């Protein structure tokens, strides 16, 4: 048996012990702590933490979940991490979020369904159980595909609305995708739908310094929820969002973003399109539009959500330009191909 010190970002440290051959994630769960995770088999990267000390073995994970650069930087996947000595790891979440609670299915009904573009749609789920949900802006749930045993992970694109108890999501439309096909061909207002969660350590922390938000495609969703939260509380620090897509037709929710920028002091937004054929004024990738003022000489919290190539590109950009922010929170996702 080895001892693990789990150091949470709110300054709390918890100690747990592993059984022979047990992973760190399983040991924590057995001890009443739920390190954020989704897959448990080295595929999603949700349980990523930072190793501070100790020896361990870590195998059977894919590079999309943990890159070679991240391994060299001391990052670990706790679902694949088996100890060979006492260890200490930093968990990128608060201890409160990681206290294990019983996960129950949440039942609701489709409240709204809107095709935003050829590539994106939004839907809302409402009901008494949805209205009672507690989640942090930026977290996600698993949405069960009706009529199947499959589920898909989607970040909340809104807070729960007090007026009707609904919460919203963005979906990238994938040809022949299970959820895409259901939502575009079968779904109707009032249909029953089931959620599980919430999950994830990608969420808006207390704002203590300027924030730079970088969104790619439907990675915009968690930032919409974050901006809604900031609108409710206000902030004295500048917050800038750069939203990047591939084609003009992929730009969605621009009116909502502009409304946030005009109604919240210290919040600004911009969007860019990567296609050379774009008619949008700002072209290129999000990294082409990061200004020195957004980085505040490194005293900045960067939040990034997008597909794996975007996350890797931003990480390399930061490394090449010696950008070391106070905090770097990110979540990468890949649309299911079925």
TrEMBL record:
UniProt cross-references to Gene3D superfamilies, sorted A to Z: 3.10.20.30, Nucleotide-binding domain of ferredoxin-NADP reductase (FNR) module, Translation factors
2Fe-2S ferredoxin-type domain boundaries: 2-95
Source species of the chain: Marinomonas hwangdonensis
InterPro entries from the UniProt entry: 2Fe-2S_ferredoxin-like_sf, 2Fe-2S_ferredoxin-type, 2Fe2S_fd_BS, BenC-like_FAD_NAD-bd, Beta-grasp_dom_sf, Cbr1-like_FAD-bd_dom, FAD-bd_FR_type, Flavoprot_Pyr_Nucl_cyt_Rdtase
Required cofactor(s): [2Fe-2S] cluster
NCBIfam families: BenC
PANTHER family: NADH OXIDOREDUCTASE HCR (PTHR47354), PROTEIN RFBI (PTHR47354:SF5)
Record-given protein name: NADH oxidase
Residues in FAD-binding FR-type domain copies: 103-205
GO MF term set: 2 iron, 2 sulfur cluster binding; oxidoreductase activity
Entries under Pfam families matching the protein: FAD_binding_6, Fer2, NAD_binding_1
């Amino acid at each position: 048996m080895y001892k693990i010190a789990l150091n949470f970002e709110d300054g709390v440290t918890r100690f747990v012990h592993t059984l022979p051959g047990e992973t760190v994630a399983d040991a924590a769960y057995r001890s009443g702590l739920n390190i954020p995770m989704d897959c448990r088999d080295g595929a999603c990267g949700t349980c990523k933490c930072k190793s501070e000390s100790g020896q361990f073995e870590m195998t059977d994970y894919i590079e999309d979940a943990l890159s070679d650069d991240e391994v060299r930087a001391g990052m670990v996947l706790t679902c694949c991490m088996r100890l060979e000595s006492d260890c200490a790891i930093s968990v990128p979440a608060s201890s409160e979020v990681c206290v294990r609670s019983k996960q129950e299915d949440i039942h609701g009904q489709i409240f709204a369904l809107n095709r935003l573009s050829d590539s994106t749609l939004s839907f809302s789920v409402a009901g008494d159980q949805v209205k009672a949900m507690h989640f942090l802006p930026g977290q996600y749930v698993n949405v069960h595909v009706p009529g199947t045993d499959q589920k898909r992970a989607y970040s909340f694109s809104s807070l729960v609305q007090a007026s009707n108890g609904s919460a919203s999501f963005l979906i990238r439309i994938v040809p022949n995708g299970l959820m895409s096909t259901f939502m575009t061909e079968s779904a109707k207002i009032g249909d029953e739908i089931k959620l599980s969660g919430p999950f994830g350590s990608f969420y808006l922390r207390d704002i203590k310094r300027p924030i730079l938000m970088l969104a790619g495609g439907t990675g915009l969703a968690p930032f919409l929820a974050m901006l809604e939260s900031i609108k409710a509380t206000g902030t004295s620090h500048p917050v800038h969002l750069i939203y990047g897509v591939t084609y003009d037709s992929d730009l969605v929710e621009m009116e909502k973003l502009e409304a946030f920028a005009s109604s919240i002091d210290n919040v600004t937004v911009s969007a860019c399109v990567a296609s050379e054929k774009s008619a949008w004024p700002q072209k290129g990738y999000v990294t082409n539009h990061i200004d020195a003022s957004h980085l505040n000489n490194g005293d900045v919290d960067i939040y990034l959500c997008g597909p794996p190539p975007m996350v890797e590109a931003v990480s390399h950009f930061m490394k090449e330009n010696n950008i070391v922010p106070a905090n770097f929170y990110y979540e990468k996702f890949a649309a299911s191909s079925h």
